[in-house]
Design brief:
Oligomer: single chain
Strand order of the largest sheet: 1-2-7-4-9-3
Low-confidence stretches: none
Helix content: under 10%
Radius of gyration: 15 Å
Largest sheet: 6 strands, antiparallel
Structural class: mainly beta
Length: 186
């Protein structure tokens, strides 16, 4: 694949991998054992949301669905994995649930990409510069749902479905090669 925009070369790409333990009713990475991935500065620092959307569409592993910030309430998705590309600003996120001792609280910025496995609780902790925005994208044909990991919400059946979700056959940003492709069941 010839990228339409200059990506950070794979040999130089900094990727952090996080296996986040289940906490309460938030499964995190405990079901498929695939790590949450953060690609640091995968896109150029002056990237626009429309350029990200165009690139993701060209790669074809995910379909861009929205431009927005991250909700301030911890939530997760049981029906799909999620790709979050930072298109404006910077923010501190909480990944895994705010009471989880195994949570991760990274600062992400424009150009970063978060590959969020289904089941990982996530929320915005702080919009650092104001105007934080992401492009959210999902595998073709998948629709996201909202789960909160709360008692009595009836989410148990939804969570069981995570085990059956297919992982990416192409890296959402890099295509045939890329960090997400090497991640196999644990």
């Amino acid at each position: 694949m010839t990228p339409s925009i200059p990506l950070t070369p794979l040999a130089s790409l900094q990727v952090s991998r996080h296996l986040i333990p289940r906490h309460g009713l938030i499964p995190n990475t405990s079901i498929q054992h695939r790590p949450l991935l953060i690609y640091r500065s995968a896109f150029p620092p002056d990237i626009s949301a429309s350029a990200i959307e165009s690139h993701l569409s060209q790669v074809g592993a995910v379909k861009p669905g929205w431009r927005y910030t991250m909700y301030e309430t911890t939530h997760f998705h049981s029906t799909t994995h999620e790709v979050l590309c930072i298109s404006r600003g910077s923010a501190r996120l909480c990944l895994g649930g705010e009471l989880n001792p195994g949570r991760v609280e990274p600062v992400v910025k424009r150009g970063d990409v978060v590959i969020m496995p289904a089941g990982v609780g996530h929320r915005l902790l702080r919009d650092i510069e104001g105007g934080f925005e992401m492009v959210g994208a999902y595998p073709p044909g998948k629709q996201w749902d909202m789960c909160y990991g709360r008692e009595g919400e009836g989410e148990e059946e939804q969570v069981r479905g995570i085990k059956e979700l297919e992982w990416f056959v192409r890296d959402p940003v890099y295509g045939e090669d890329g960090p997400a492709i090497g991640e196999v069941d644990g």
